[in-house]
Amino acid sequence: MKIKIIGGGLAGCEAAWQIAKFGGSVELYEMKPRKKTPAHKTDMLAELVCSNSFKAARVNSSAGLLKEEMRRLGSLLMECADKSTVAAGGALAVDRDVFSGMVTHKIKNCDKITVVEEEISEIPEGDVVIIATGPLTSENLAENIKERFGGSLSFFDAAAPIVTADSIDMNSAFTASRYGKGDGDDYINCPMNKEEYEIFWNELVHAERTPLHGVDIQNPKVYEGCMPIEVMAQRGEDTIRFGPMKPVGLIDPRTNHRPWAVLQLRKENAYGSMYNLVGFQTNLKFGEQKRVFGLIPALKNAEFVRYGVMHRNTFIDSPRILNADFSCRSNPNLFFAGQLTGVEGYMESGASGLIAGRNAASLLGLCGKLVPPKYTMIGALCNYISDESVKNFQPMGANFGVMPPLEEHIRDKQLRATAYAQRALNFYEEMSNNEDNS
Fold first, then answer.
1. Which of 117, 167, 174, 181 maximizes the CB count within 10 A of its CB?
2. At the topology level of CATH, where does 162-308 sit?
3. Strands 2-6, 129-131: parallel, antiparallel or unpaired by DSSP?
4. Beta bridge partners of 154
5. What is the torsion angle, in degrees rounded to the nearest 10, for the CA atoms of residue 67, residue 73, residue 76 and residue 80?
6. Residue 416's Cα: distance from chain center in Å?
7. Model's pTM, two decimal places?
8. pLDDT tens digits, 37-70
């Protein structure tokens, strides 16, 4: 019996790999290249449509802990991510094409996985199925899910622009990582003085935006983690200066002082030929992006290889629909995974695919059921999406707040984070020891 997976994004690929790893056969349905969403640009599986960063790398951070837990569970995504890194200070960022290419190669060359390039418009009946179609689920399937489960929720997500390296004015920029983390030159920093920043801010909040059909363009419902820079700027003149443009931990070598505001640029590929405007997700019209972002001195002649875009994200009301193993309460053979479940972030999506895949495989007797305990980061996310006490369900990424508190109160933030991480990793150590002894 083949398990059917709908969607070849991060969650779908991770789920397929986990099933195949335990000897199961998979049919992975992906509508590309026949049909693409507005956010997808390549024909590859596991395409990164927004940032190329998987967030913090250190294990004593919530994002870093999530990734380490995935490594210990044999994640395909983490294997490929660790082999396609680009310098990003304390973050794990990847060359997006190398990463997606690696995942695509692994999936398409696995003899247990058959990739079917076909759009699925209805949930298949009578099979073990994982729906991992992501936040841009095609209209027909989204309607079918809505009919089956009584509606879905949606919000809007945004991506940041990318510029060419050789078009950045390095006479107006400097290389450094905040607080000297990483190799010291992982980011290109674009400083602004007070006057330059005030002009930029004023133009940003008054710039023309791309219309969003069916929503209030001035106040669209957006996820806080991907707030368009122009929407954030409307909250006050200093909001982005204490957010994505914060200058703390950076000294401009030309002045030996901390700038008034700083835009950081992060490598998009291993060659360092393209850079992402960190934290500058936007819905401005393309011409406005070039004009307004060009007011930042280092970007006055910037060549944009990709402008920022905003798109609809859809997710189901998981606490009313899903169990902690990502199976449906109304049908144990039907699983959901990825951002469609309300987990927010690349690796959060991958982790949900890992759990859904393992548990789908367990239905066929290929492996044991796996739902990590709530004191692990993966287990905490499993609990969050299935917690019926959550009434106003919203997308959630990895954070220590979704984990049970420590028995001992630790005042120091770093020591507290380390304690959270160690408590979680102890579970995987025990799990590994038990597997070795069985």
1. 174
2. Elongation Factor Tu (Ef-tu); domain 3 (2.40.30)
3. parallel
4. 314
5. 40
6. 25
7. 0.79
8. 766 778 999 999 878 999 999 999 999 999 999 9
State which amino acid sits at residue 312.
R
| Antiparallel, parallel or unpaired: β 162-164 and 274-277 | antiparallel
Contacts of 134 (CB under 8 A, 6+ apart): 7, 9, 11, 338, 339, 340, 349
Measured CA to CA, the distance from residue 352 to residue 14 in angstroms comes to: 9
H-assigned helices in 51-155 = 62-72, 76-82, 96-108, 139-149
The two three-digit tokens of residue 18, written as one number: 């986990």
Residue among 118, 113, 114 at smallest CA distance from 140: 118
The position carrying tokens 């400083």 is: 191
State the pLDDT at residue 218: 46
Q: Contact at 8 Å (CB) between 187 and 265?
A: yes
Domain ranges in the chain are 2-154+314-437, 162-308
- Whole-number pLDDT of residue 68: 98
Q: What share of the chain is helix, strand, coil (3-state, %, to 5)?
A: 35, 20, 45
Q: Which helix (H) or strand (E) holds 388?
A: none
Phi, psi of 100 (to 5 degrees): -65, -35
The sheet carrying 327-328 orders its strands as 113-117, 25-30, 2-6, 129-131, 331-336, 327-328
Burial of 258 (0-12, 13-18, 19+ CB in 10 A): middle
CA–CA separation, 72 and 67 (whole Å): 9
Bridge partners for 311 per DSSP: 157
- Which amino acid is located at 62 in the chain? S
- Please report where in the chains the tokens 């669209």 appear, as a residue: 220
Burial string for 306-340 (b: 16+ CB within 10 Å, else e) reads ebbbbbbbbbbbbbebbbbbbbbeeeebbbbbbbb
Average pLDDT, the chain: 91
Nearest-10 crossing angle of helices 377-386, 62-72: 100
Class of 2-154+314-437 in CATH: alpha beta
